[in-house]
Amino acid sequence: MAQEQGFDFFGFGGKPGNESEVREKFWRTAKKAARQIPFMEEVVAAYYCAMDKNTPLRAKGILLAALGYFVLPVDVIPDFIFGIGFTDDIAVLTAAITAVSAHITPAHRQAAKQAIADKS
User: Fold this and answer.
1) pLDDT tens digit string along 93-108?
2) Burial environment of residue 81 by CB neighbours within 10 A (0 to 12, 13 to 18, 19 or more)
């Protein structure tokens, strides 16, 4: 009697999203932001760190909160405003990545490089 488990994020239609849906939304947002966020490779490495089962829960929580803010359609500064739309996202991501940088491993960074190469 296994139940399907998903993540419940605000702004995704009020329904739980499965892992593939969450991944798709992350990559869609990442592609839109790639030109405006100069450290996109580090953001993707943070994503892999957050998904790593060996990452401590506190670090995962910080990263998932920041990445959630990044992919949510509702922001303090809407993302569609050219030039400044991602500035609030950059601030949140920078703070989160700085806070947990010790947990972002070379393997996460290598996976990020490979993923960015594959997605472009």
Assistant:
1) 999 999 999 999 999 9
2) exposed
